[in-house]
Amino acid sequence: MQKSEPAMTTNLRVHRYQEISEVLARHGLGFLVGITGLERWVPFHQGLMGHERRAEPYTNPDHLRLAFEELGPTFIKLGQLLSTRPDLLPPQYQTELAKLQDGAPPVPGATIRQLIREELGSEPDEVFADFTLDPLASASIGQAHAATLHDGTPVVVKVRRPDVIPTIEADLDILQNLAVQISHRWEAAADYNLPGIAADFAQTLRAELDYLQEGRNAERFAENFAADPGVHIPRVFWETTTSRVLTLERIVGMKVNDLTALDRAGIDREALALRSAATAVKMVFEDGFFHADPHPGNLFIESDGRIGLIDFGMVGEVNDKLRGQLGVLLTALARSDPGRVGSALLDLSVTRQPVDRSRLRADVTRFIALYEGRQLNQIEIGPLITQAVALMRTYHLQMPQELAKLLKMMIMAEGIGVELDPGFNLGVVLAPYAKKLMFSRFAPQALARRMAAAGTDAAELAADLPDILRRVVDTLDTGLEVHLRAAELEPLVGRVERIGNRLIAGMIAAALIGGVGALTAGDKERWGNWEKPLMRAGLGAGGALGAYLAWTSRRPGGSYR
Questions:
Q1: Nearest-angstrom CA–CA distance, 185 and 31
Q2: What are phi and psi of 43, to 5 degrees?
């Protein structure tokens, strides 16, 4: 018999269900209450307290932000994530959720002392030569304290708030349940994998809760920038680090958006804009491991102009597949090829419904026309990304989480650059990497990998062909009418298309039908009914099927990749 949940956990879940439904209802978000199935939790019998009033009426995006702030760390992090997902939310909601403040009242000093004792085995003033109980900053998940090691090294000690894990775990479980409810109750949600998005969010947030993981992230960045004296990644002090306490070298400097301080220090802001953007772009295109939250509060400029980076809880990775897909997209954009741009956008995204490929091609053609004749270093990257994502939203194309993080990071990097230097253009920094990425697709190693993958597909196809032939012959021998449906041919055609191109698909199909004709040549009556009219039209049976495959590959909803 399965054990029941502990009473405390069950009570917490019930409390959170009630709290979430009550807060959403109080902010007039009844639609969300309805599509999530939370209406049964709304405490109508108690009456709902109003929220703070103001002269200017609240908008629905205002109410959503206020509700998320009120519901605490899980929903603040969710709102911050959604603010970076233009494929999921309209711009006005993104703009408002980007204002979410991840702040919280400070944890009492006595509680911090107890937590340090539990994690590090001694009082704070024994573990450290000096420890300031008043926090430098206090957020919903943890807070930071200034301290000094016994060797005189100034450090920052991040301490996770006590008892935050049970609430977050309950919330993540509830969000997963609500995502399933929305998928079944709201027709528009069928275009998106909301349970998958909820699962990705849960994974990201759990990683951010683990300070050991953040420490490993910091060390990985330090290794990647070891040869760059212009970037300062703080050292991790593992002797005083656990999953709930993280000790990092303290970085002292000016915030990257404190223009007055930068000018007073004699920092060349135009050069700094280029260096900060180059740092971000290197993470993506050289290291494949990037800081996914490079807002101004996480970038400090030291007195000598060195860039100091902090807060490594939220990171992203660019694997070979994503890098290759970006290369295909950039190559297609450079060639102004709307068909390939459309196909690249589909490869970079997930869709749960057929896409009208001809309409997508027409829209992509208009999109490309906006940038016709301009080099990448002449294009503002932020608006380009925004327009591309708006196009994806039109066709309900959902971005993978890592791509969403990457686009968010690029937009933030360009925003910081423009704030430092109004004439800054991220395209100037991106152009060399984009060119290298495009050329890398045709490097011998890349071609060899693609040929090896094609060889595997060909071997699988060769193994499957005899069985396919036998089934076709068996069908013909039964005397039944043959109906060739695209859905039945799709697995075979998809594999063939990966070997080469649609011409090869037609040739193999022709060979396949030709082989069937030879095997059944003894039964002229059965073949004569449908082969002779095609022959009179100048098409053999194989040519007819090849043409059919080519047609299905181009029609709306057919294979396009």
A1: 11
A2: -85, 70
293 is catalytic: yes
CB atoms within 10 A of CB 114: 13
How are beta strands 231-232 and 307-309 bridged, if at all?
A: parallel
**Chain segment 514-554, per-residue pLDDT in tens:** 443 443 444 444 334 433 433 333 333 333 333 433 333 33
* Pairwise CA distance, residues 201 & 184, whole Å: 20
Q: What is the DSSP letter of 187?
A: G
**C-beta of residue 144 within 8 angstroms of C-beta of residue 158:** yes
- In tens, the pLDDT along 296-306 reads 889 999 999 99
CA–CA gap between residue 330 and residue 344 (Å, rounded): 9
Candidate list 151, 258, 268, 293, residue with the active-site label: 293
Give 3-state DSSP helix, strand, coil % of the chain, rounded to 5: 60, 5, 30
H-only helix segments in 395-501? 401-420, 426-440, 444-477, 486-499
Torsion-angle region of 333 (φ positive above 0: left; ψ -120 to 50: alpha; else: beta): alpha
Query: Under DSSP, is residue 347 helix (H, G, I), strand (E, B) or coil?
Result: helix
The average pLDDT across 429-435 equals 78
Question: What distance in Å separates the CA atoms of residue 379 and residue 227, rounded to the nearest whole number?
Answer: 30
* Owner of token pair 């029609």: 555
CB 15, CB 41: distance < 8 Å: no
Closest by Cα among 137, 132, 80 to 105? 137
Residue with tokens 């301009």, as numbered in its chain: 374
At 86, the pLDDT band (50, 70, 90 cuts) reads confident
Burial of 422 (0-12, 13-18, 19+ CB in 10 A): exposed
Dist. CA 38–CA 14, nearest whole Å: 12
pLDDT attached to residue 227:
95
Burial of 485-495, coded b for 16+ CB within 10 Å and e otherwise, reads ebeebeebbeb
Which backbone phi and psi does 233 adopt, to 5 degrees? -105, 125
The closest of 176, 87, 74, 61 to 405, measured between CA atoms, is 87
Integer Cα distance of 469 and 229 in angstroms = 64
d(CA 335, CA 438): 11
pLDDT digits (tens, 9 = 90+) for 305-329: 999 999 998 899 988 888 778 777 7
Query: Using CA atoms, how far apart are residues 396 and 88, in angstroms rounded to an integer?
Result: 9
